[in-house]
Specification:
This protein is of the alpha/beta class. Helices cover about 45% and strands about 20% of the residues.
Length: about 375
């Protein structure tokens, strides 16, 4: 890393630390979340902010091509699903009508990738979801962790596909689409139909992501977060989606995102299933469900530093199964990436590509190059 880039990153790190502690963190996590989404909605179509995002990206980031999950990424750190996912709607017709009216229903779709590079959009369910109401986002400054029960709020796959399809010439060079199993759907055939129709909606709209992710872990909804991760259900869900992609978009690989705190045997079974059906990578892990601040009866997904130990345990089990059986399934880390030391922990387990979310809150919009610069130091 040259001196100018290192200095620029350091100044940004110091500047964001000052602004966040003296201004941003004076707001509640919920209020700050709402303010950021409102700004992103405007920034997507503001030439000044788009130029600023691209300028900062060019100064802070350096292309580091790495092969993982059946693709070649330009950069090894990916903004995880959940940040750019869109508004919630009660019905698909309302969501589609909003798109046709010209509304930006997916704040950050343009300016966020321009700044941070690879982004996973979503999660998107087949039908739109309003999500949970009231306070749904918390932060823990002492433990650099976040917690949310947004509840898979999103505009639904059809409206999201229509929205992005109308802007496909402006989409980033590399991005993923995260598809979630519909919460509350107990019929397995319906779950498979929902997933296939969701993927088809994006392809039909001309939106061809660099990768698709199947999210079988939904800790922030009423759905059982482990219910879709049995051998039989995962095989059918992932297997049908792989076959669909092989037929309709053979250059787009499938990744699968799973839960922390599964049994070691379950991780071994999942790796075998992924290898047998053709999944190219597993993302470990989603958030871990814990009681929200002040109410032991309500649970929400914890991310950030409090998640890291759970993620490391899951990766260790997955990695052991892969090594023992020579499975051709890559492991992508997700959870607790906050500092150069935490990135070093991933590298110790031979994990070269990592997703992050909470780091964007605690380290700022240039969190990824800041963390990498700390690792090099």
């Amino acid at each position: 890393m040259n001196v100018f880039r290192r200095t620029f990153i350091k100044l940004h790190d110091l500047g964001y630390a000052y602004v966040s502690h003296h201004r941003l963190f004076h707001y509640s996590a919920q209020d700050a979340h709402n303010l950021i989404l409102a700004w992103l909605e405007k920034a997507d179509n503001a030439p000044f902010w788009l130029r600023a995002a691209r300028w900062n990206h060019r100064l802070a980031y350096k292309r580091q091509q790495i092969t993982v999950g059946g693709i070649q990424l330009d950069y090894p750190l990916i903004l995880a699903a959940g940040f750019v996912k869109g508004e919630g709607f009660a019905t698909e017709s309302q969501a589609v009508q909003a798109v046709r009216a010209g509304r930006n229903i997916m704040p950050g779709w343009r300016v966020v990738p321009a700044l941070v590079g690879p982004v996973e959009f979503g999660s998107f369910t087949r039908q739109p979801r309003i999500g949970n109401t009231g306070t749904v986002v918390w932060r823990d400054l002492a433990q650099t962790s976040t917690q949310n029960r947004i509840g898979l709020r999103n505009p639904g796959a059809v409206a999201a596909a229509l929205f992005l399809g109308r802007r496909k010439k402006q989409l980033p060079r590399q991005f993923g689409i995260n598809l979630a199993v519909s919460p509350g759907v107990v019929d397995e055939k319906q779950s498979i139909t929902d997933i296939l129709e969701s993927a088809a909606a994006f392809l039909r709209a001309g939106v061809k992501p660099t990768w698709f992710t199947l999210n079988v872990s939904c800790p922030n909804t009423e759905d059982d977060p482990t219910g879709h991760q049995t051998e039989t259900r995962t095989r059918r869900l992932a297997g049908m989606l792989v076959r669909f992609l092989n037929k309709n978009a053979p250059d787009i690989p499938l990744w699968v995102k799973i839960s922390p705190e599964l049994a070691p045997e379950q991780y071994a079974i999942l790796m075998r299933v992924f290898a047998e059906v053709g999944v190219k990578a597993v993302i470990a892990t989603n958030t871990v469900s814990r009681a929200i601040p002040g109410d032991p009866t309500v649970f929400a997904g914890v991310g950030g530093s409090r998640l890291m130990a759970h993620t490391m345990t899951a990766i260790a089990h997955l990695r052991l199964a892969r090594m023992q059986n020579n499975y051709p399934v890559d492991i992508i880390g997700c959870g607790g990436l906050m500092t150069g030391d935490s990135l070093h922990n991933y590298h110790d387990l031979d994990i070269k590509v990592v997703q992050y979310w909470s780091a964007l809150i605690f380290r700022g919009p240039l969190a990824a190059p800041i963390i990498e610069s700390e690792l090099r130091s």
